[in-house]
Write a structure and sequence with these properties.
It is a single chain. By secondary structure, the chain is mainly alpha-helical. The chain has one domain. It is about 65% helix and about 0% strand. It starts with a helix and ends in a 17-residue tail after the last helix. It comes from Arenibacter troitsensis. It holds the Pfam family SdpI.
Length: about 120
């Protein structure tokens, strides 16, 4: 029965890490309402969309890995609470990650989606 606690604590992190890997390998090409990092700021134009999805994939990867690690640590400290701790950590990490992505978009683009510093698309991140 202990393996159920371990699986429930680590599954959210593993699933998110796997999804972020797919998202990084196959990012959305054009602005859409189904797939990708979709916020008002990231959907202003194609430049903000590309940059937002580039850093969104990074954010998801780090959130997934850190949630997995938090689940493993929680399992070894208190197995019966591990799933709850892992889920709580995931929710907090997602909000922090979205805040970070929006901050990066705000640093790179103005409120209309125009680049603030350079127009070189290779400078993503």
């Amino acid at each position: 029965m202990e393996w159920v606690f371990f699986l429930s604590a680590t599954a959210p992190g593993l699933v998110l890490t796997f999804i972020s890997w797919i998202y990084k390998v196959h990012p959305p090409k054009s602005i859409n309402y189904l797939y990708g990092y979709r916020t008002r700021r990231s959907m202003r134009n194609q430049d903000t969309w590309d940059f937002g999805n580039f850093i969104g994939a990074k954010m998801m990867l780090w959130v997934g890995i850190s949630t997995f690690i938090a689940g493993v640590i929680a399992y070894f400290i208190k197995p019966s609470w591990a799933m709850g701790i892992s889920t709580f950590f995931l929710i907090v990490a997602v909000f922090v990650g979205i805040f970070w992505c929006e901050r990066q978009l705000g640093i790179k683009f103005d409120k209309n989606g125009r680049p603030l510093f350079d127009k070189d698309p290779s400078n993503l991140g």
